[in-house]
Amino acid sequence: MPVVLAVEGLTKRFGSTRALTDASFELHAGEVLALMGANGAGKSTLVKILCGVHGADAGSMTIGGTTVAFASPRQAREHGIIAVHQTIADVGVPTLSVADNLLLDRSCTGRGPLLAGGRRSLRAAGAIAAGIGLELDLSRRLDALSIAERQLVAIARAVAHDPAVLILDEPTASLSAPESERLFAVLDRLRDRGVALLYISHKTGDLRRIADRIVVLRDGRVSGEFRRPLDLDAAIRAMVGHAVGQVARRDPVPDGAPILRLSQARLAPTAAAFDLVVHAGEVVAVTGPVGAGKSTLAGAIFGLWPLAAGHMDLDGRPWRPRSAGEAIRNGVFMAGEDRWRTTFFPGTVPFAQIAGTIGFPFLDRWGRAGLVARTAETRATRRLIAEFGIKARGPEDLPASLSGGNQQKVVLARWHAEPARLLLLDEPFQGVDIGARDDIIRAIRAQSRDRATIVFVNDLEEALEVGDRVVVMADHAVVGDAADLARISALLASPHPAVS
Ligand SMILES: Nc1ncnc2c1ncn2[C@@H]1O[C@H](COP(=O)(O)OP(=O)(O)OP(=O)(O)O)[C@@H](O)[C@H]1O
Ligand SMILES: [Mg+2]
Fold it and tell me: Of 27, 76, 211, 464, which shows the fewest CB atoms inside 10 Å?
């Protein structure tokens, strides 16, 4: 197949950080080239150069033999290159409907006005959504969607452009297996049509399923290239410098005292009632498809909204939190799924740095504002940066300047700054590399003794790795729990109808 895109010697620095050094490779029509690399290896930086977000400091790009340089994403788009970025927080217009967002690019190019929600535009938006098998109420506002749904909207928009080169930066980071498979089916079709795909993922299952060839980046340099049959172990070695296995499941933890107890709880008036008990010392993984109600459960325990029915106890006393603040004061912490909505501040806020982000929930404990708080904050942040292996220059770095996986580590580090009684982690492994996932699981376990920990994950493999026991949810209710793969798969498979 012909070379569609060739890059030669691409180099990019941010201040003293060498994000990308002398990177060269070719991308062919009708192939899926996977880009692998540890957190901070330079993958997203490369993507941003290819699609005109950043200019390169050195190096060149050719499309179909002609040298190009893009001053903007728009120029890249005119050459047929479209990227779906890792941070989708700023994709689309939050206050508009899904339909309007899907049609945004068309209305911008003067074919509008379509934003009236007329029948014709709804049909056009429906066709775009159907292009990737996206089943969603198109009249919902973008900001009412879950992160997985927004990710799918962003992908549908990109595919609708009919690009020659489609770049996907961790598109499945918050998708569960069925949504991922739907996406892969779309990518198969695009590949058959001769589209060149550049695919970034930390999930080895994704790569096994979709990659034709792998290029590995390490510390900003190309450190390996692999062709079919793909040797993923070798690729991982090229990526991190050593072999990485699965974290061993730990020995069963002796039952501590029950910390959280849900009795006859309902997450929605029409959902089934369920019980759940989580003990001190154990790490419980809650899994189930997107839309199964995992985040709804997490939010109810954390005080974001009430249960529809039933009740909760914390340490044997009724637990009816009315706000996140009340939860935090009582030692119930939650690391939210969408880090840009729940954790980070805009860069213009004075305490937007890593230290301020980590210290924010604990200002009450660390002495209101003032010097004491600042010192405690900086000290705690330094310790956590080391503990979680966060690749940053220091506590005063802005989260926005960190790679995606390192941003995620900041979110987890924040809620380990103080001891929790109950720690809720919603999709904690989003975008973290294989090596870092091991480190995070170890860090979670190291502090898990005196608290109860609940980890909410779409990915079954992750659930089995992190959890001492796995609880399965479907249709906004807990439907069972198990510790072995066969039983969990059976719980997930039936008899619950597919959840949209
Ligand atoms: N806008 C920026 N300002 C300063 N440094 C940056 C900026 N963007 C990226 N970097 C730095 O460049 C390096 C490469 O980051 P990049 O985001 O490309 O990594 P990545 O391979 O995509 O990692 P991940 O798997 O975590 O997403 C990191 O050290 C990062 O901190
Ligand atoms: Mg990245």
Answer: 464
